Amino acid sequence: MLRVAVPNKGSLSEMAVVMLKEAGYTVRRDSKELVLVDADNDIEFFYLRPRDIAVYVGSGTLDAGITGRDLLLDSGANASEVLRLGFARSTFRFASVPGVAESAADLAGKRIATSYAGLVRAHLAERSIEAEVVRLDGAVETSITLGVADVIADVVETGTTLRNQGLVTFGEPILVSEGVLVARPQPTQEDRLEVLKRRLSGVITARTYVMMDYDIRVELIDRATKITPGLESPTVSPLHHEGYVAVRAMVPRKGMNRIMDELYGLGARGILVTDIAACRL
Ligand SMILES: Nc1ncnc2c1ncn2[C@@H]1O[C@H](COP(=O)(O)OP(=O)(O)OP(=O)(O)O)[C@@H](O)[C@H]1O
Ligand SMILES: O=P(O)(O)OC[C@H]1O[C@H](OP(=O)(O)OP(=O)(O)O)[C@H](O)[C@@H]1O
Ligand SMILES: [Mg+2]
Fold first, then answer.
1. CA–centroid distance, residue 9 to ligand 3 (Å)
2. N or C terminus: fewer CB in 10 A for the chain?
3. 54-112 per-position pLDDT tens digit
4. What residues does the Histidine biosynthesis HisG C-terminal domain cover (predicted)?
5. Which domains occur in the chain, in start order?
């Protein structure tokens, strides 16, 4: 049975659970449930603190886990990213009151407050910058006002929290993060892990693409399939109505309206879009 860690709270938790559910797994119904066996799918889920997940996976106690790239790198655990999950996207950045620093070089001698001390220390060491790292649990944006730090390094998504505290980012982002599936470099249950990966990839594809169907005159088929090339090749079937074919292709959800307009302009009719409930490519 594959043993998998799932975030039990915080920004990653809800999206991780929704994704597992869409992938056909049993998910917990109440937040007091910490361990859940999904016997039908040969998998056991452990609901754990997001920050601890890479540690469990790296130590070999659990086979895989869902966490953030920033948490994985901060932990220094012997685990690596095996799939990007596309949710909880954020950057990890330095910030301060305007005028205090312009680039990483200005960090020398400063006090830097963060919840990600491992990540910040590694970043400073790579650049041979000597600075003091003040490790805090959260709400680090307030630490400058309260006088314990000159600079912060924290998760930035919309930038609202920083703005509310009168802070501005400086320098290049330390990291671009998102939810990821992590596992050990040489997993023991490789086949079972592959099934989990394939199921989660299926959810990502089903969210990213839609299925498009349309009818078009045979002589326009080459031009039409340039607009909808599909992932490998579109399906083209003859229609009872002579001179026409039906085309079916996956298209990116994001561009579907532009694609429909283009196809209609070319002469396609009966253009239908349907959601993909699940897939294995
Ligand atoms: N506003 C946000 N937008 C996107 N991702 C975020 C945001 N805040 C935190 N994260 C991500 O969530 C993970 C941290 O999860 P964790 O549960 O430790 O903190 P949290 O989401 O801030 O929750 P809490 O503050 O309730 O502890 C990291 O991967 C981080 O990048
Ligand atoms: O750029 P924004 O959209 O404002 O999001 C970023 C904020 O979200 C998270 O904080 P959270 O509310 O989880 O509090 P925390 O600092 O206590 O973790 C993160 O730590 C930042 O503070
Ligand atoms: Mg937080």
1. 10
2. C
3. 999 999 999 999 999 999 999 999 999 999 999 999 999 999 999 999 999 999 999 99
4. 206-277
5. 2-88+178-188 (3.40.190.10), 90-175 (3.40.190.10), 209-275 (3.30.70.120)
Q: Please report the atom of ligand 1 found closest to the CA of residue 179.
A: 29
Type and span of the H or E element at 203: helix 190-208
Q: DSSP string covering 30-45, please?
A: STT--EEEEGGGTEEE
Query: What is the chain's mean pLDDT, rounded?
Result: 97
Ligand 2: atom nearest CA of 160 is: 4
Find out whether 155 and 192 touch, Cβ atoms under 8 Å.
Answer: no
Exposure string of 171-207, with b = 16+ CB inside 10 Å and e = fewer, is: beebbebbbbbbbbeebebeebbeebeebbbbbbbbe
pTM: 0.93
Helix (H, G, I), strand (E, B) or coil at 105: helix
| Cβ(68)–Cβ(50) below 8 Å | yes
Encode pLDDT of 104-149 as tens digits.
999 999 999 999 999 999 999 999 999 999 999 999 999 999 999 9
CA of 11 to the centre of ligand 3 (A): 7
The percentage of residues in the chain with a pLDDT greater than 70, rounded to a whole number, is 100
Q: At what angle do helices 190-208 and 13-22 cross, to 10 degrees?
A: 100
Task: Tell me the two tokens of residue 40.
Answer: 């039908």
pLDDT tens digit string along 165-198? Answer: 999 999 999 999 999 999 999 888 999 999 999 9
**Which residues form the pocket of ligand 1, taking CB atoms under 6 Å from any ligand atom?**
9-12, 50-51, 68, 70-71, 88, 90, 138, 155, 157, 177
